[in-house]
Amino acid sequence: MAEQTSSLSEMLPIELRIGNETLDEQHDKLFCRIEALKTAAFGDSGISVIALRECATAFAIHFADEEGLAKAAGIEFLVHRNEHAKALRLFDKALREIERGKLDQHSFLRYIEYWFEHHITEHDKRLASRLTDKASH
Q1: Is 13 part of any domain?
Q2: Is residue 12 part of a domain?
Q3: Is position 124 within any domain?
Q4: What does each of the 137 residues of the chain score in pLDDT, given as a tens digit?
Q5: Does an H or E element contain 71, and which?
């Protein structure tokens, strides 16, 4: 695994670091965002749906970055891209449920964090390995 930079916070567990500096930094920032939202959600005023939508948008930007890296390396990305698209649809559905009062913010944040951890383990680690393999050839 590649050397990790000191710019990572403690929010990205070592087990979820994939060895790609760019993606590890993005993952770390997304986990920090989720944690900040969780903290704010437990505050007196909670958080706005706008803040939750901005979090989902940050994921969409990250997903596009992953796709760009895969495309630049000539890596097939269809299955991974489909996982991203499915997640964004689920996030959007959950946000609409929050707006209608059918889902609470905490449940959404717990779900998105769980989904992200699983996605890194099941998809992003393989992507990082393939990126490393392509770079070494």
Answers
A1: no
A2: no
A3: yes
A4: 444 445 777 788 899 999 999 999 999 999 999 999 999 988 777 799 999 999 999 999 999 999 999 999 999 999 999 999 999 999 999 999 999 999 999 999 999 999 999 999 999 999 999 999 988 87
A5: helix 49-73
